[in-house]
Input
Amino acid sequence: MIEPPNRAALDDTHGESRSPWRRGRLATITGLVTVMAAAALLQAQPASASRTPTPYLPKPTGSQPVGTTSLYLKDTSRPDPWVPTVRYRELMVSLWYPARSPGRKRAQYMTAKESELLLKDGEITSIPADTLSKTRTNAFTDARPAGRKHSLPLVVLSPGHSKPRTVLTGLAEELASRGYVVAAIDHTYENVATSFPDGRVTTCVTCEISKEKAWWVKLEKSRAADVSFVLDQLTGAHPKWKSAGLIDTSKIGMAGQSAGGASTVTAMVEDRRLRAGIDMDGTVESAIPASGLSRPFLLLGKPATYTPGKGETAASWERVWTGLTGWKRWLLMTGAVHMSFTDLGVLVDQVGVEVGADIAGVRAMDITRRYVTAFMDQHLRNKPQPLLAKPSASYPEITFCDPRKKTCA
Output
């Protein structure tokens, strides 16, 4: 059954335009889709020449096969932050990991109902409602994990507001193929659809809320609590994943896109188990304490929003930058739009929907994968990465920014 938003639990139900695919968010500073890209999407017509019958994710470039599984977790220590009548926080988490060999069953990208609700949220009617559920992935369900005990770094992924965890699958598969365990979290009631093992599908309660700065701060702190709980469940005395002993608990990082990226800052402040973090195109509202955040951090975004000195959203990164006292980089990807840092950049290209990007989705995914992996390799595995030291001829789309000089090159 579909579980609708509990409107009685909301302070304000009139909300704003809620589809980040449709119109962009002028009043909020989540960095979802730009107005230009969203307008293009409204007028988009399917481009039959570029459409493919079955969407697919590019193959990961690592040497190891990828396995995946899902976990249902229940935090009984706190009520749900968005639906207080639910006395505990329920989460669905997808895990990807290096496998000993490919399995027999290729993992489903998302369910037909999740595809329907995500496309409906974007007012995309030119393709069948179940199209995204047919996306070909590169991971195998419950394949046997590979690795020695306590040998695999862990990376936590957090998606953008209103988006399911599955939109970061391409990045997760890449990391897993290179020897990482990856845990992507669905933050319940914060996206268009989360499916639970008992058949329930929760929908987006938070999409109905009128959002001000204080609300986004609450969201970031709530997500930080979700992350800490998931780490407890994966690395505690009684882990919920039977292969959790493979994880090296001294090597844990986090990356997120949009609200997930903003939440990475807060999660690192709140939980010292996170040794390194990445914000992909997410405006940060929470403040870093005066003592600063000394662990490595990467800001990776699009020039239209995050060029230093160019507006309030860029100023949010400048404030973060000041609070980062350790290794840090501010990188921008030329031609990107908000969804370029997720699977959606690839998938909309394949189904023939124009979103205003000046970089192909597959190229944007390649760049995102490459820089995220380099960052994690350097800071979780202590393998220096020249790619992070200066601009690369192989990736001319990436510019390095100096917010003190308000320049990028």
Observations:
- The first strand starts at residue 2 and ends at 3.
- Residues 213-235 form the longest helix (23 residues).
- The chain is about 25% helix and 20% strand.
- Residues 152 and 239 are 15 Å apart (CA to CA).
